[in-house]
Design the sequence.
């Protein structure tokens, strides 16, 4: 938790009546070294373009949340001008800023997607700065592209891929797929047959350009099924993301056929983000025992509306099937904001529901503990 001297107003962190330990079950490293203003702002958006003329990405729900909650952790008043905040950041240095912000969160475990590693801290470095424990999520498409770089034939590629996934499973907490970016989630749910798999591998290896991108739907299906066979949890990006995504192809409801088909493997499926299809994710978590709904990214980007969005997830999803994450990437601020918006939103909702008599007071902290950490510990097999 935060050093007492780092927080100017403890009441600002009002949330559940009792502190909630958090497992951030999906996150990324933070940027190494000092950040100039342009690079800092680039982490406040999923856009690949500059903000509209005369504005910055501070002018957003996420930007306002950063200005509201992060300055007090660095010894500044809430809502201070962005220039003052960035100057204070530079004065303290990136290591001290990262330490203060991460240790304000209550996160005990960082489950880190290492598929976006360039210029970012490693899981071990992230956990050391935050005073927690590190676990790795292996991105399937990244593994496949690395294997393809060295493969001389489709047989060599497919055998190498099988070996690489199973080798990763020995140490990883789980896998992740970004099939939503590469093709969309409307994939044939069945495992591909040998003939179509070999032909798809041949097509991939025929492209000899650097930065070969795996986007063939046959190979994406093969990756999902290969990961599922390990029995480890499989995270799948759904919903909101950068412009490389076709949003209407990322509705998790498109996965229904695959969800049904993969159930006998025992693999848990974790539907990441989901917004604006978070109600679809909640429904799928409701009806399928091996499906879980994530609230990361969504709450950070909706900012002051986080409680409303979380309430929509909790309309239908069983409380033992919802998991907290930040999806923080690049900025330690995104860890601070993501954790605080979650705990405040959940605290506001449970206080209201207890006050209305819809919930028993004793149930509120128990459910907060489940969503904040307990469900993730169970799914990923993490120690208390």
Sequence:
């Amino acid at each position: 938790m935060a050093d007492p001297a780092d927080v100017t107003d403890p009441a600002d962190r009002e949330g559940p009546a009792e502190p909630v330990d958090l497992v951030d079950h999906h996150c990324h490293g933070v940027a190494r070294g000092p950040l100039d203003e342009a690079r800092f702002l680039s982490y406040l958006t999923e856009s690949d373009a500059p903000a509209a003329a005369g504005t910055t990405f501070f002018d957003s729900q996420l930007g306002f949340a950063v200005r509201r909650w992060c300055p007090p952790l660095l010894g500044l008043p809430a809502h201070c001008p962005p220039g003052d905040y960035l100057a204070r950041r530079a004065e303290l240095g990136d290591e001290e800023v990262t330490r203060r912000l991460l240790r304000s969160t209550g996160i005990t475990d960082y489950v880190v997607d290492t598929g976006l590693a360039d210029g970012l801290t490693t899981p071990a470095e992230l956990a050391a700065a935050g005073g927690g424990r590190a676990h790795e999520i292996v991105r399937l498409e990244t593994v496949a592209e690395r294997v393809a770089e060295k493969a001389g034939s489709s047989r060599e590629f497919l055998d190498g891929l099988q070996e690489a996934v199973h080798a990763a499973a020995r140490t990883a907490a789980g896998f992740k797929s970004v099939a939503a970016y590469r093709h969309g989630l409307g994939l044939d749910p069945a495992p591909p047959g040998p003939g179509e798999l070999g032909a798809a591998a041949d097509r991939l290896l025929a492209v000899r350009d650097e930065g070969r991108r795996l986007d063939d739907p046959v190979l994406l299906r093969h990756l999902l099924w290969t990961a599922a066979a390990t029995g480890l949890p499989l995270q799948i990006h759904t919903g909101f993301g950068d412009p490389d995504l076709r949003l209407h192809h990322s509705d998790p409801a498109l996965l229904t056929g695959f969800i049904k088909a993969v159930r006998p493997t025992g693999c848990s499926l974790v539907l990441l983000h989901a917004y604006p299809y978070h109600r679809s994710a909640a429904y799928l978590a409701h009806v399928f025992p091996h499906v879980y709904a994530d609230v990361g990214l969504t709450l950070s980007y909706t900012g002051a509306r986080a409680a409303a969005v979380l309430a929509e997830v909790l309309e239908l999803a069983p409380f033992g099937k919802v998991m907290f994450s930040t999806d923080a990437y690049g900025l330690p601020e995104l860890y601070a904001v993501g954790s605080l918006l979650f705990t405040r939103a959940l605290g506001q909702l449970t206080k209201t529901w207890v006050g209305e008599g819809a919930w028993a007071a004793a149930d509120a902290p128990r459910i907060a503990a489940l969503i904040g950490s307990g469900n993730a510990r169970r799914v990923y097999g993490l120690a208390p």
In short: Confidence is low (pLDDT under 50) at residues 1-17. Strands lie at 22-27, 107-113, 133-139, 174-177, 234-238, 269-273, 291-294, 322-323.
